[in-house]
Amino acid sequence: MLKRIKYIYVPGCKQKLIVKAGKQKAMHFAHYKKTCHLFSEGETQEHLQGKYQLYHWLKEIGLNSQIEAYMSNLKQRPDIISSLQSGEKIVFEFQCAPISTEKLISRSYGYANKKLKFFWILGQRYRLKKKLTQQIAQFIRWTPNLGFYLIYLDVGHKRFEICYAIQQADYVPIKYLKHYAYSLKELHHFLHIKHKPKYFPLTLIEIKQQMANFRSRIFYNDPGLRNLRNKCYVRGLTLYEIPTDVFPQKYCPPIYRVPSFIWKMSVLLLKGESNLSYLELASKELQKSRFYNMPFIKMEYFFKLELRNFLATKE
């Protein structure tokens, strides 16, 4: 039968398909190499299960939804697109594979530009561990209600996992709270109740761990401390002589790719030989620090918050 068919085309991308029949996999259709950018033929079981779990939950609450419907105006195929009774559309992306920050921004901007609400829900690859990474930080959102947060879909347990009040401190593991939701209704409820997240103070054990890790970095000549080491050296100091109160006494927004004490110590070193105010020096040194690229966060607000907190210690 297949031999009688000249060509088979995909409606969405208009590209030809070929038949693959090997020893390892059952016979199936596939695109010619590099002809289609709409599908990921290496889709994982996690991603496949997650899409259908989301679709099932959306159907439960009466939302008309489509899986991988092609959006010709964006040349994109979101995992799920749902339509509200008002006519408003919502996009759900279940992200399991690696994605660059540039592509994440491009896709998100495309949805926003078409006035579509969109949600990035994460798979196991993006699990929070002891240290934040750019791959994870790029998905973080913030609300006054939850603080910094991420939403995961655990396909094994058929539940959402919300990691919220995410925060960091120098040389200790990140800290956050966790909540499970077993339906979209539960998720919606949790996201909209008042939580009033706060930044945790460091415990005595965490402070000891922080100092031990810092001294270890000095001992092993951590390249990340090179510039500060040089600034100290020309002033007749060593990193071991840095006052401990320059380290944060509590956790802070998870925006730093490098320890936050570095820019603060630089301000203290410069203040003794400069006529500039603490505000002027701190503003300059803070801008020199390295931050995560967080496209969904208004970073300026948190820069001001960090400045305000630092200046409060100098009053």
Automatic annotation (TrEMBL):
InterPro entries: CoiA-like_N, CoiA_nuc. Residues 43-170 form the Competence protein CoiA nuclease-like domain. Coiled coil: none annotated. Residues 11-38 form the Competence protein CoiA-like N-terminal domain. This is Competence protein CoiA. It comes from Ligilactobacillus ubinensis.
